[in-house]
Amino acid sequence: MASIYKRGKTWTANVSIMQDKKRIRKTMSGFLTKRDATSWANDIEVQKQNDVLVIQDPVFTTAFEEWYLIFKEPQLETSTKQWYKRTLSLLQEKWANKKMSEIASKDFQKLINDYGSNHVLSSVSHIKNITSAFVRYALDEDMVKKDFTRNVKTHSVVKSKDKQLKFLEVEDMEKLIHSVKNNDAVTSKMILTAVYSGMRFSEVAGLTRSDFDFDNNIISVNKSWQIHDQKFKDTKTQTSNRDLTMPQVYMDIAKKWHFGKTFAFESENGTPPTDNAANKQLKRYLEKNNSKIITFHGLRHTHASYLLANDVAIQFVSERLGHADVNITLSTYAHLLNKKRTEETDKMLSLLNKV
Which residue has the higher pLDDT, 278 or 7? Predict the structure, then answer.
C-alpha cells in the first residue's frame, strides 16, 4: 500500500515492493502537489500488478560509465573513446545525480537542444547516438521501462564546415601523387598509400610487410595501430577487415620501398609516424602545389570522391572504405551524389527531348 506525506513544501510517496524475497520501499520525493505524488504511486502499483516494475534504479551517469568501461572501452579506437568520454562529461554536467527513472524524453530533448545551440549537427548526433545505445542496453537490463531517446530529434544552429574543403579535386590529387611518389620519407609513403586505398590513418599505420601481396596486387587490412595507446587493435568495425585490390602503378612503386621490421611504415623510433607528423608533411606538399589544405583523413574522402565522380558503384565504394553500412557512405558523400544526380537529370532530359 502506498504512503503519501508532506515533507517541508513538497510531497513524498513510497510504495512497498518485493526485491530478492525482501520487502522494501520504493520512494520518490519532490512532488509539488499531493495529486502528483498519488499519481506516481498509482503508476508504480499498476507496474507491480503488470510485472513491469523496474526495481533497480541506479544513477544514470554511474550506470553509463560502467557500461562504457565494460562493453565499449576495450574495443574502441582512441578517437572514438573521446566521444564516449565527452558524452559522459556532458551527462554528468546536466544530470549529475539523476536516477534512471527520473529522466523522460523531454529531458533528453532539452539536453540535445542546448548542446545543439553551440555545436555542429554531427557532434549533436554523436551525443544522441551514444546515449541511445546505452539506453537500449539499459532497457534490455530492466533499468528503464522504455526508450526515452527514441523520439528525440537532433538539432543544431551552428553550420558545419563546407564538405568541399575536406577533399582534393582531381587536379590537386594528381599534383600530390606526382609530388610524393618518388619521395622516400615514411610519411610520404603513407600519404601515397592513403590516396590510392582510402584507408584510415590508423589502418595505414597498422600495416606490416606481410599485409602486402605483390603477386595479386592486394593489401590486407586486418588491424589498426593506436598512436595514443601504442598498440595494435582491431579495425574500427568488422566490415573494416578487407582486402583492397591496388592499382599496378602503386604496387610497382611500393615494391621498391624498404619496410620496417614491425611496421610497413616505421620511423626511427621503431613505430609509425604520428598522425600529426603525417598531417604536417601533407600540408607542406599541398602548400607547395598551391592546393587547398586538407588533413590526412581528407585523403580518404579524396579517394572515395574520385571513385564516385567517375561512376564507381556506391556499394563498391562503401565496401572499399570498410563502412559498416552503405547508408554511412550515402550520408557522408551526399554532396557529391547530389551533383551527380543533377548531371544525370540533365542527361535524362537531353535524351527525352530528342524523342
Answer: 278
Whether residues 212 and 286 fall in one domain: yes
Q: Do the beta carbons of residue 154 and residue 125 sit within 8 Å?
A: yes
Specify if 278 maps to a domain: yes
For residue 277, the domain's CATH number is 1.10.443.10
pLDDT per residue over 197-213, tens digit each?
Answer: 999 999 999 999 999 99
**3-class secondary structure, 118:** coil
Alpha-carbon distance of 271 to 231, in angstroms, equals 10
Q: Is 44 exposed, middle or buried (0-12, 13-18, 19+ CB in 10 A)?
A: buried
Q: Which residue has the cell 526495481?
A: 55
The average confidence (pLDDT) of the chain is: 89
Residues belonging to the chain:
355
- pLDDT for 48: 67
Q: What is the pLDDT of residues 285-339, one digit of tens each?
A: 999 999 999 999 999 999 999 999 888 999 999 999 999 889 888 888 877 767 7
Question: What total of structural domains would you count in the chain?
Answer: 3
pLDDT band, very low/low/confident/very high, at 56 (cuts 50, 70, 90): low
In a domain, 149, yes or no: no
pLDDT tens readout for residues 12-44:
888 877 655 666 667 777 788 889 888 878 887
Query: Closest Cα partner for 146 from 105, 109, 112?
Result: 105
Q: Are residues 74 and 208 in the same domain?
A: no
CB atoms within 10 A of CB 217: 16
Query: Which of 272, 241, 108, 250 minimizes the C-alpha distance to 193?
Result: 250
Which domain range does residue 40 map to? 3-49
**Closest to 136 in 3D by CA, of 221, 232, 71, 52:** 71
- Grid cell locating 182: 618518388
Average pLDDT over residues 68-88: 87
Q: Cell 562493453 sits at which residue?
A: 71
Q: How many CB atoms lie within 10 A of CB 264?
A: 23
SS3 content of the chain, % helix, strand, coil (to 5): 55, 15, 35
